[in-house]
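Its record is set out here:
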Amino acid sequence: MERENYSNFIRILEHELIPALGCTEPIAIAYAAARARAVLGAMPERIEINCSGNIIKNVKGVTVPNSGGLVGIEAAAILGALCGNADTELEVLGSVTDEDIVRCKELVDSKMCSISLVKDVDNLYIVASLFADGHSASVSVVNRHTLITRIEKDGEVIFTNDVGGSVQRKEDYSCLNVRNILDFADNVNIEDVRHIISPQIELNSAIAKEGMKGTYGAAVGYTLLQVFGDNVRTRACAMAAAGSDARMGGCALPVIINSGSGNQGMTVSLPVIEYAKDLNVSEEKLYRALVLSNLIAIHLKTYIGSLSAFCGAVSAAGAAGAGISYLFGCGYEEIGYTIINTLGNVGGIVCDGAKASCAAKIASAVHAAIVSHYMGSHERVFRAGEGFIKDDLESTIRSMGYIGRVGMKETDEEILNVMIDKAEI
């Protein structure tokens, strides 16, 4: 592999695999509000949040971490403005106190925060505006959860991002394809990725174990293990689901995300970790499998975009299935079959926001990926012309991305209409 491509893959992993506390959409709101509070220099008397439908969809039903069980945009914005540390970015709510929670609940009840839907903007779009003593400050976050594109104070623009909301990257994502990713996973010096992969194993395993207590959300992971028994297939699904149970239920433990999503970060890693334990593979083999699964998930998600009506658990599970195939010693063809079979099976799962049922969708997608691995290892694969399956792997990935990015736009709007009771049902 060329040295530049090698370095680029490292940069992509470092850019994408970062820690986050809680669901990334409410955390992005808290982050924007915390940044605006720092610019305002005072606790706001009033907060206005203007955001895209996808942000509303992904915050409406999820518990804000360290909020004492509060749900929704108001709680995220107020807690961020009240006590958020914006310097920690996606861990902005990591230092909330009991007193902060009591005060946040009081301010939520006071209706100090208003919310407006903004149409015809990026799927990930947040403007947090804070007001106090005749002064104002606003922070715009667009396209990525911590990408600030505009800051205003008292109506004067004090910062703009020249890219106008697009993602400014030193990483070149055009080098991503499954063959290149597999080559990198086979040949990367493990010490070059240890600082990236090791935290993912540690943090994501910790929150999954917490979720397995069965006290969060609908306890999907706990239920799976309780009903179907302790075998590797069940554990792979259950641990990924349990991590989501805890995270969607407001657990304050951080996770290492993938493609801007903690649920995707857990889906892409925990099933691979469980299979590595069962197969008793070396640490090196596990690290290479996780490098593969993470990069394939990023590759698939690049075609879809940050937020969509296409459930991100599907692409992440397909990537986890590829990682599992790698652990079994499969090569490029079989790994490609695993991805194609997963997409062809559960590619129709829609995203109707972040909430407890995400754990069940993750479990279903991971189960489909495991089935897809066993199909692929026997050279059984869905064929070109069957739905959106094309005649090669990369064309199928692009086809899926087109459906998620373009084909499901109207679906995305109607899901939101149903969620906010504006649909004529």
The radius of gyration is 21 Å.
